[in-house]
Amino acid sequence: SESHGQPTRRVDIYNQFVDMWLDREIQKAMSQRGITMVPQQLRLEAIEFMRQLSVYMVKQNRTKLPQRITSTLFAFEARSNLDVFFGNSPLEKAVRDMVPIRTSGGFLTFNHKTIM
């Protein structure tokens, strides 16, 4: 721990990691076609995406999320928060690419469980 002030807590390190990760990924996203948001709004979207995903996973007692297969024709009726995590709009794709998660075998999971 540090000689004065509060000792560094694990949560502070992860918060700093996520901040640095988002800074880098937002810069990448800004250069993509179809993304017209200002960096502050992209950061808000990314943080909210992570928050919603984390809350959903905790409520479901899961560490990974299976992709739902739903009707494209009737998607406007069936759409839920869950579908946003796997959505195909330019914004949904950009935000998913910005946050520290990965998709593997149709499952969405955080890169590290401590980020959740």
Low-confidence stretches: none
- CA-based gyration radius: 16 Å
Proportion of residues in helical segments = 40-55%
**Total of helices:** 5
Instruction: Provide the spatial order of strands within the biggest beta sheet.
Output: 1-3-2
This entry's quaternary arrangement is: single chain
Mean pLDDT: 84
Explain the overall architecture.
The protein contains five helices and three strands, in the order H-H-E-H-H-H-E-E. It is mainly alpha-helical. The relative contact order is 0.17. The mean pLDDT is 84.
Overview features:
single chain; 116 residues; mainly alpha; three-stranded antiparallel β-sheet; 53% helix; globular
What does this entry show, briefly?
The chain is mostly helical and 116 residues long. Helix content is 53%, strand content 9%. The protein has a 3-stranded antiparallel beta sheet, covered by helices on one side.
Question: How are the SSEs ordered, and which strands pair?
Answer:
Elements: H1 10-30, H2 39-60, E1 64-66, H3 75-78, H4 81-85, H5 90-98, E2 101-104, E3 107-110
Antiparallel strand pairs: 1-3, 2-3
